[in-house]
Amino acid sequence: MEIKLLKCFIAVADELHFGRAAQQLGILPSALGRNIRMLEEGLGIRLFSRTTRNVILTRSGYTLLNEIRPVLTKVQDALDRVKEAARREDRVFRIGAIDSAASGLLPQLIRDYRDQSINLELILEEEKTVKLLPKLLSGALDIAFVRPPVNSKEGIHFEPILNERAVVALPSDSELANKAQISVYDLADIPLIVPSPRSRPHSYNLTNKLFLEAGLTPNYVQQAEQKQTIINLVGAKVGVAIIPYWTSRMSVENVVFRPLVDIDGQEITELPLAAAWLKGSRDENRDELVKLVKLNLQKYSQ
Prior knowledge:
This protein is α/β, with parallel strands linked by helices. It has 11 helices and 13 strands.
């Protein structure tokens, strides 16, 4: 049974006048009359006694009115809550980011983005790339700032943002801490702390690549999952670590950071960062965020 027929019935029952009820509903009296007849035929009972002057509820009509009014009120309340939830959903924008981007890029980016999107609720999630990409595919995230995988991920578009610099985290009282910049040759035989190759392949592979190109064998002493844990291990003098530049904003006592340079003294920028989203999707909020990143990239990357 259609809800609109029941709404028509309640309007006529309240007004006891087809003209006034039709005006209340914003429909023609003839259409209202047809709806009432359809309801009566569907139920197989008469709901109103009609004369040329009066409209009166039958006993069956009176019973239906008492039973159906609270039910329709609950249905309307539920529909209103669903519509409000949908409106709130439209105002929610979900951003994922790897830890270095979360500590270095997002704070300034979110501040600027909120200034131009004050009615948008921003939800931030910090995770590794391997965990963020499935959330893009499931719709749990609208955009994610990640290290693009070596093999393209079906269904996801990767928009290059920048190549993040690499720095070396050192105990503040180490001899290397006195140098303005560090080369891979300075790290020969130095104990190294590295991330997991499965969860953070870019950082792990960069360390391997640099040592291989220099003809050196890295001295790995410890693996750790989280960047904060790696920096804490450096502070505990377990070893040193090659990390993304933005991670150096996670200050830890007794740890200093120095630029990592190649044999020509040039800073090494081989940690790609990309904005990722569902391929073929349209989202004005996302487009505005990416535009803001690219316009202010120099400021954000310092």
